[in-house]
Amino acid sequence: MNRQKHSIRITSQDFGSLHAHLFQDQNEQHAFLFGSLITSNRESRLLINDQWLAGPREVIRQTPTFIEIDPCYALNALDRCRKEGLHIVDVHSHPFAGKSVAFSPIDLACYDRRETWHRRESPSTNSYSLVLGRESMMGTVANGTAGPRSPLQAIDVVGADWWQISQSCEVLPPGHRYDRQVRAFGVETQQRLSQLEVGIVGLGGLGSALLPQLAMAGVRRFVLVDHDIVEETNLNRLYGATQSDIAQPKIVVSERVIKQIHPEAVVQTVQAEISSSSAREALKFADFVFGALDNDGARLTLAEIAARYLIPYIDMGSGITMQDNHIHEAGGQACLWLPKQTCPICAGSISPERAAIDLRDSSISDIAREHYGTREPAPAVASLNMTIASIAASELLMWVSGNHSKPGMVSYDFLRRSTEPIGLPRPRSGCPLCARIATGDPAEHSTYSRRMPHIS
To answer: d(Cα 304, Cα 21) in Å, to the nearest integer?
Structure first.
């Protein structure tokens, strides 16, 4: 029995235009979606990067209960998949369906014929069949070789908030563990939190302060990435660490913290740098990632992973600047980056020059950091880290619950005891990071660590 989960991930802009097209009137409408496929033993996810919306020239006949498209149009779509290595979604609407929708007998007969044709003409292409109601969906997946169809479990729509078209919400009894939180955000938000897989990259002061807040909020699936071990100087700010943890991997301490809060939580740990292929493979199915990284090379690498796999990403940072033995500046920020809406390169949040230094050979990088004066240990305070981590955790809650209006940065000034929201510019054309959105796995399956795209 095939127990692999199958899902589709699409940006809110693309889904918005698709939904508007499919429900423009009382007739059935049609579209083809194209995407890159990523797979593991437990999940298959299609990342949508383009769509064709069928217009009058592509439609032969249509009524409120039937639509027939031009076979040449369908052949062109399949040819594109074959040439570009993409996979295809054949989607149409049932305009009168609301919260429940199902394939009609005509739909099923058409899909049987089409999938036989697809397997003959393009055996490397997976074929998705999808029908959408106004608030519902039903879908199946057929691989290009053989075997029965598999059900499509969910469509994840990623934008200023996150929502999923799937099965109905569970019912939580009064007085349950999350009763007070549900009173604020609702049962649906709590279910979403329990379904999310959250990646955290960097488990120092900021990352470790974030962990317990997410676990207590109800996140049950984690991917933790950090290559470092616990040192004695970490103990003033590394949440959950004790004297006996010195020389232990930080991921061991972090997993223990999560399990103490949620014994049934699923935690995947990777003791490696973000530039490693093992980190990328572990993170690519995450629904959300947090970065608590201390150099622009690592931040760019995580931003590229988030772009490739359509993953919303919060970048956290904190710092203290000393002058004449006094605190001159102190604070931090949490910034939400969303595919096709914001970009750390376009916004100037990542320095390409610094990133290039960080991504070079380690010996050259050490010399460069010494030149820039960044080898001296920086001041660090637990309360500042916890404040930034709390802001980041709150941003996730706002995003999952649909209360976010738009992505941006929340800046915190430690000395003034104030926060400020800061808007971000839209992505610009020609950005090499934006060009990687929804492209899936890179052509070479090694590491990102010594490569830096040219950024004009």
So the answer is: 31
Q: Are strands 154-158 and 150-151 parallel, antiparallel or unpaired?
A: unpaired
pLDDT of residue 343: 92
pLDDT of the residue at 448:
41
Cα gap 128→139, rounded to integer Å: 7
Q: Is the predicted pLDDT of residue 210 greater than 90, yes or no?
A: yes
CA-CA distance, 19 to 157, in Å (whole number)? 12
Best CA proximity match to 435, nearest among 357, 348, 350, 346: 346
> With bands split at pLDDT 50, 70 and 90, how would you rate the model's confidence at 369?
low
Average of per-residue pLDDT across 140-152: 80
Contact criterion met (CB below 8 Å) for 388 and 318 = yes
pLDDT score recorded for residue 286 = 96
How does strand 154-158 pair with strand 162-165? antiparallel
Instruction: Spell out the residues 6+ positions from residue 353 whose beta carbon is closer than 8 angstroms to its own.
Output: none
Burial (CB < 10 A; 0-12, 13-18, 19+), residue 324, is exposed
Which DSSP category does 56 fall into?
G
Predicted confidence band of residue 310 (pLDDT cuts 50, 70, 90): very high
The encoded tokens of residue 34 equal 């194209």
Which of 195, 255, 245, 205 shows the shortest CA–CA distance to 225? Answer: 255
Cα first-last separation, the chain: 51
Q: Which of 104, 114, 170 is nearest to 142 (CA)?
A: 114
Residues 337 and 419: beta-carbon distance below 8 Å: no
Name the H helices within 123-244.
179-185, 187-195, 205-217
How many residues belong to the chain?
A: 456
**E strand or H helix that includes residue 277:** helix 277-283
Q: Look up residue 313 and give its two tokens.
A: 């990403």
